[in-house]
Amino acid sequence: MFRFHRFQNRIFFFFSGLLILVQLLAFLAINATNIRNAKEQIENGLLVGSRVFTRLMTSRLEQLAESARLLSGDFAFKTAYSTGDKATILSAMDNQRSRVGADVMMIVSPDYVVMADTLHPKEALVPFPFPELIKTAEAQGETSSIVLINGQPYQMVIVPLLAPIPISWICIGFTIDNKLTKDFQSITLLDITFVQERSDHRLDILASTLSKPLTNSMASASFQSGMSPQKIDLLRLNNDNYMSIRIPLNNGNDKVSVLMQRSVEKALEHFYQLRSALIGLFAGSIFLSLFGGVLILLFSKPPALPV
Fold first, then answer.
1. What percentage of the chain carries pLDDT values higher than 70?
2. Could you identify which of 41, 104, 189, 193 might form a hypothetical disulfide with 208, taking C-beta atoms 3.0 to 4.6 angstroms apart as the criterion?
């Protein structure tokens, strides 16, 4: 047994305690720095991803608008429209829609009536469900928006059919679905979720790269009013924290947004591995230091006292 009053033992216990304290403080500092750096990387990734997403959506919209403009000036399509025969118009619309790769196409009269619709080819004349978009197109020459048709979101562009003045409106849309979100995810390396905020501040999930349990958790939670556009917030989904940024897509009544997210736990996985390695390193160095100190005390002879 060691006697604490011996000078060598007191030195041993002092430096051992100092070593353990220094190692513990170093571990806590490194661990805190790693976690902070990881979260900063997630935030930077979300900010960069949001800018990339915005550019991709803008580019996609410009391509869609250009296709619609080309269609509005297409002589064959105008000829089919001039016949007034719905079957002929629908056939021409389907050909044009397939050519540009669109998912829906409508012809809307100046008084906001759907004259032909590729989604509902047998449907009789019905009011256009988004008259405010036609009004905006009348004021600006053309317009675009995210709209919901039968609960399915579409990125839609509206341009006039000119002869040479506007005689009707061409509406062309692309589906926003899980395939699109996966395409965006492959570029941004983030989870993408298109949502619509309801009047009760809960969310309808329109399309997402997240699993069903996670989207169910998101849909059942109230949409936090503090989650401001372009501001990074923390969402709790199924016992996991997700850093998220919201990008509003519409300024109208349809509160459609995209949430770009990344799991904090997944992002910290390699930092947890580093932490485990640090714990092993620190524990091993302390053990070897203490073991070496004990050996020195056991096999060292006390200094001879002067006669």
1. 82
2. 193
- Which pairing describes strands 240-248 and 232-237: parallel, antiparallel, or unpaired? antiparallel
What values do phi and psi take at 268, rounded to 5?
-90, 0
Domains and CATH numbers, the chain: 66-175 (3.30.450.20), 178-267 (3.30.450)
- Report pLDDT digits (tens) over 12-71: 676 677 777 777 777 777 778 777 877 888 888 888 888 898 888 888 888 888 878 877
C-alpha dist (Å) from residue 145 to 32, 59, 172, 175, 179: 44, 14, 11, 12, 20
Arithmetic mean of pLDDT, 181-201: 86
Scan for tokens 């850093």, then name that residue: 243
Strand order in the sheet with 143-149: 126-127, 113-117, 104-108, 166-175, 152-162, 143-149
Whether residue 279 contacts residue 287, with contact meaning beta carbons closer than 8 Å, is answered with no
DSSP state of 254: S
Other C-beta atoms closer than 10 Å to the C-beta of 218 total: 24
Q: What is the pLDDT of residues 103-117, one digit of tens each?
A: 889 999 888 999 888
DSSP type of residue 229: B
Coil, strand, or helix at residue 145?
strand
Rounded CA gap, 247 and 231, in Å?
Answer: 9
CA atoms within 13 A on the CB side of 46: 27
Q: What share of the chain is helix, strand, coil (3-state, %, to 5)?
A: 50, 25, 25
Burial (CB count <10 Å: 0-12, 13-18, 19+), residue 307: exposed
C-beta of residue 92 within 8 angstroms of C-beta of residue 76: yes
Q: Which residue has the tokens 């989604």?
A: 119
For residues 39 and 140, the answer to whether their CB atoms sit within 8 Å is no
Output phi, psi for 77, to 5 deg: -70, -40
C-alpha span between 185 and 193 (Å, rounded)? 10
